[in-house]
Design a protein that fits this description.
The chain is of the alpha/beta class and 1009 residues long. The chain is built from 43 helices and 18 strands.
């Protein structure tokens, strides 16, 4: 039993029913015997088999047992011969009219079985379609479907007829009428054909420009599969070497199957650099972090068991790649070729863009090789709104017949050195026919010549890669075919261990035979192999019975090999086989759970495009199943979409219309909490909504995940209102729920959030520093997540007066920001560095840092926090004895205080009060509007502003911020001669600093008193 591409021929006699009414059965039987003999002889002579006789109807199949590359032309030839020979028969009626037949031929996938009792049986829609086409044809006509037309068009001329509605078909079916054999020389006459000299010249020119100008460039080489894109690039590099150039050229190839689409090509490229470039090898020996990233990538790219610990984050991967490429290009021009980018994940495409942006000043030529679909994906190869592209694009077309023939001749003399066997034709004729039938595609031509070299015939070979590869597979011994099928389920690369797991011990001689036939090649990993050609992998997989695929996918998943991918594939196949299977729902749940785990792992690595894809697939599979997996997948997908900037998508995933209330109750608690959490992030949540949600959760079954998210909701609300102690309590409660649920994803997020919140909370400095140390130890291998802890540590040390420790932590944090290119990380470091500079009296540096942070935040759209940074910068300006400029900036910002967060608002008001007091005025002051706000603000008195500060201060539980505000108010009182009030407020400031151990500002307050 096997699945395969077959060609089914249906034909029957015209007018048989009327003839049977008028003629005695005995002469009719003699007519049928002659007719059957003609049909049997023609079908068998052309390599087919008669599957059944049904009265006057005959069903024949081509490719049922062994596929031939030209099964479709064989079927057409058999039909044409039967049509001609039956015309010599005469009906046994009185008019003795000639006999006519009408034929239908269809090609498509079918399941072929063979038994001693029933012989060959073909099951599939292609059988029904061929019968319908035969009924559609009139006397003497041969009607075919589109697949037959594609396979046989080089040999036969056909004309389309209007699409027809056939019984059992939901949509009209395109069909064609065969009109005759094609004229000699007409094959492929309408194809665009080019040679390769111009493309090679362009590539060499771009390389010389890169070498001359010492500037990086990217070029995209596009064309259909098998057209010779990779060969073209390799030949261009060889041309450069032959001309005396010394480029270092490395290649990385993407895979179309499995889960390594983002890492396989990158690992290929980086490993090649390590092997070929001494400076890269030395860098890997001297820098353990880079070596660790490469080792982790190599591990992730292999078809091993799925892990639960996240690998390096995308920022670390980008940094390590930049470091290695920089080291490689330091010694001379570097050529990096990314092959088969049509199969690349979005993360790899984004990485390529980042590498180009970050390495512009290096002699680096980046060559992206892909099918034409790449032009429609985001990146420098995509055309802009005006139709232009950043990158040079080389489009590779088909070979002209003369070049195709030269390629065929060279292939005929290659390999073992043996001449191609003539098989009744001279070599020149065979080469010419291969060049034409290959339609200028070097891959097709090469495969055809390989077949010829191995004793196959070239007689009217169809230009279909599927048919050609299918024929190649059928000529393998049975163990080789089974081995090929098992390997195809594992993926483009596989190991002997995995084959043994599927029941294929893979004896060395069987593997060696497939290597010798250029179907497999050895991989770097011990005991590892990979497919040489992607079409071989695809066809081998497609020919397996679906039941076998389901079993093997499940076995691989059970042993931990890419469980999400394999379980999803098994569920999809089983749904097609038996949609009512009792185990399908459970299999879909397992697949959803595995994809959820893999998507969460990608999310923890900040590989957002991959996470969105995996979590989206998990959500689709989880629909209709238990709410738990579905709701967690929806919430994680919502998180990922928010990280990608798709706020609308994040809201839609958990929207009420996606989760309507049913008779069983409302949407799951976790989903409802996520809606409120998103609303809180957008500033659109009301206290009444939160209270209602709390009451609903209290009345339901405990759900740790929902409780965890609810505490995060409370944390956000408290932060927005400046209640940092309450926010810390909520974060600690959420962390407890996450740990109870064993949710490492939530735990990571909450530990980082807690570290940041504790900077502002009433917790003592010792506790804050202990939390930073815990986080730095936990995230030692993930500097992106460690960065907030480094920044918080620097802030705490600066506040305690440990100037050296603060500077050391800031230096390390700035190194992480620089190496990982973290824009928002730069903002975080600037804020802390500004605070440290201000505490040391370096107010110009503090102002510069605060202003740079504000610019970056505004550009990213974080206006409230950006305004707070501008307030801080204006305060530093005042401390530099530039009161007039500071007063002007504070007045402008005062008009926008409602846009600020609580910190910004209270600092802005305090600065206004202090500024007015220092100028010795308590008279009305006007909040000068900014140019973007033409409407004048209301006049305000300093005492009114001071009252608003005190009101805000009542709810504020950030001791350091309280200390800063109280100290400013104390100075304002003294400026106004209110000494008692000044001392009282200074005492409050000192108490606030003392309660958390902020020794540095406490020292300043005591000295002032």
């Amino acid at each position: 039993m096997s699945r395969r591409l077959v060609v089914v021929l249906f034909l029957d006699l015209v007018g048989w029913t009327r003839l049977a009414e008028r003629v005695d059965p005995e002469p009719l039987q003699r007519l049928l015997d002659e007719y059957y003999e003609i049909c049997s002889d023609a079908v068998e002579e052309h390599g087919g088999v008669v599957e059944k006789f049904i009265g006057d109807a005959v069903m024949a199949v081509f490719g049922a047992d062994t596929s031939q590359e030209d099964d479709a032309p064989r079927a057409l030839r058999a039909a044409a011969r039967i049509r001609a020979e039956v015309r010599d028969l005469r009906t046994p009626a009185t008019d003795a009219a000639p006999v006519e037949v009408h034929c239908g031929i269809a090609a498509g996938e079918a399941l072929v079985t063979r038994s001693a009792r029933a012989g060959i049986r073909v099951v599939g829609d292609v059988v029904n379609l061929a019968a319908r086409l035969q009924a559609l044809a009139v006397a003497g006509e041969i009607i075919v479907n589109e697949t037959v037309a594609h396979l046989a068009r080089p040999h036969y001329t056909m004309v389309p007829v209007p699409p027809v509605t056939l019984k059992g078909k939901a949509e009209p079916v395109p069909v064609l009428l065969v009109t005759g054999e094609a004229a000699a020389g007409a094959d492929g006459a309408d194809c665009l054909m080019v040679d390769r000299a111009a493309e090679r010249h362009r590539l060499r020119g771009i390389y010389h420009r890169v070498d001359r100008e010492r500037r990086a460039e990217l070029v995209t080489v596009l064309g259909p599969p098998g057209i010779g894109k990779t060969r073209l690039v390799r030949e261009a590099v060889d041309d450069l070497v032959a001309a005396g150039a010394r480029p270092v050229a490395v290649f990385g190839s993407c895979q179309a199957y499995g889960t390594a689409g983002n890492y396989g090509a990158l690992v290929d490229m980086l490993d090649a650099l390590a092997r070929r470039v001494p400076s890269c090898a030395e860098l890997l020996r001297s820098d353990e972090r880079i070596a660790g990233v490469l080792a982790a990538l190599r591990e992730a790219s292999l078809p091993r068991r799925a892990g639960t610990v996240p690998g390096p984050g995308v920022e670390e991967v980008s940094w390590a790649a930049r470091e290695l490429l920089t080291a490689a290009a330091a010694g001379g021009p570097l050529v990096v070729v990314w092959d088969d980018l049509a199969w690349a994940g979005q993360s790899l495409l984004r990485l390529i863009g980042e590498l180009m942006d970050g390495l512009r000043d290096l002699p680096l030529l980046m060559v992206c090789v892909s099918r034409a679909e790449l032009a429609g994906r985001e990146g420098p190869w995509a055309p802009g709104a005006d139709g232009t592209r950043e990158a040079d694009v080389i489009e590779v077309g088909a070979l002209v017949p003369a070049d195709g023939a030269r390629l065929a001749v060279s292939l005929a003399a290659a390999g073992s050195g043996a001449e191609v066997e003539p098989h009744g034709l001279d070599l020149a004729e065979q080469v010419d026919r291969v060049a034409v039938y290959g339609a200028g595609n070097p891959l097709y031509i090469r495969l055809m010549m390989d077949w010829l070299r191995n004793g196959r015939t070239v007689d009217e070979v169809p230009p279909s890669i599927t048919a050609m590869v299918g024929a190649m597979i059928d000529r393998l011994p049975a163990p080789g075919r089974r081995l090929l099928g098992a390997a195809s389920v594992i993926g483009p690369s596989f190991t002997l261990e995995q084959l043994a797991l599927l029941g294929e011990p893979a004896p060395q001689d069987a593997v060696a035979e497939l290597v010798g036939r250029r179907l497999f090649r050895s991989a770097q990993e011990a005991g590892g192999y990979c497919f040489v050609q992607q079409p071989v992998h695809e066809v081998a997989y497609g020919r397996l019975e679906k039941e076998q695929r389901v079993a093997w996918h499940r076995r691989l998943a059970e042993h931990g090999f890419s469980p999400g991918f394999h379980l999803e594939a098994a569920a999809r196949l089983l749904a097609g086989l038996r949609p009512d299977d009792a185990g399908l729902a459970e299999l879909a749940r397992e697949a959803a759970g595995a994809l959820l785990g893999e998507g969460t792992l990608a999310l923890r690595q900040r590989d957002v495009p991959t996470a969105i894809g995996l979590l989206g697939r998990a959500l689709v599979l989880a629909r209709g199943g238990p709410d738990r997996c579905r709701s967690v997948a929806a919430v994680r997908l919502s998180d990922a979409l928010m990280l990608s900037g798709d706020t609308r998508g994040a809201l839609e995933v958990v929207a009420e219309d996606e989760w309507p209330a049913t008779g069983a109750g409302p949407a799951p608690a976790l989903v409802r909490v996520q809606r409120h959490l998103l609303a809180a992030r957008l500033g659109k949540v009301a206290e009444a909504d939160v209270a209602g949600l709390r009451a609903a959760l209290d009345g339901e079954e405990p759900d740790r995940s929902a409780r965890c998210r609810f505490e995060q909701l409370l944390m956000l609300i408290h932060l927005d209102r400046g209640r940092f102690g309450a926010a810390e309590e909520a974060a600690v409660a959420a962390l407890g729920h996450a740990r109870d649920a064993g949710d490492a994803y939530e735990e990571d997020r909450l530990l980082v959030a807690l570290c940041e919140i504790r900077q502002w909370s009433p917790s003592p400095m010792a506790q804050k520093l202990a939390g930073c140390a815990e986080l730095l130890e936990r995230f030692a291998a993930d500097r992106f997540l460690a960065l907030p802890a480094l920044a918080a540590r620097a802030r705490c040390l600066a506040l305690t007066g440990d100037r050296s420790g603060a500077r050391s932590a800031l230096t390390e944090a700035e190194s992480v920001v620089l190496q990982l290119r973290l824009t928002m990380g730069r903002v975080l470091v600037d804020q802390v560095a500004a605070l440290a500079a201000s505490l040391e009296g370096e107010h110009a540096e503090a102002e510069r840092r605060f202003r740079r942070a504000a610019d970056a935040l505004e550009q990213a759209g974080y206006v409230p926090v950006a305004l707070t940074m501008r307030v801080q910068a204006a305060r530093e300006c005042a401390r530099r004895d530039r009161p007039d400029e500071a007063a002007r900036r504070i007045a402008e910002l005062l008009a926008r205080r409602e846009e600020m967060d609580v910190r910004g608002r209270i600092l802005c008001l305090t600065a206004a009060v202090l500024g007015a007091a220092e100028r010795g005025r308590a008279e009305p002051m006007r909040a000068t509007p900014m140019r973007t706000r033409p409407a004048p603000a209301e006049p305000m008195r300093a005492d009114v502003l001071r009252a608003e500060v005190l009101r805000l201060l009542r709810d504020l539980d950030d001791p350091c911020l309280r200390g800063e505000v109280c100290f400013d108010l104390a100075r304002a009182h003294r400026c106004l001669g209110e000494e008692a009030e000044a001392r009282a407020m200074a005492g409050r400031a000192a108490d606030s600093y003392a309660v958390v151990g902020a020794a540095k500002p406490l020292e300043a307050v005591r000295a002032w008193r």
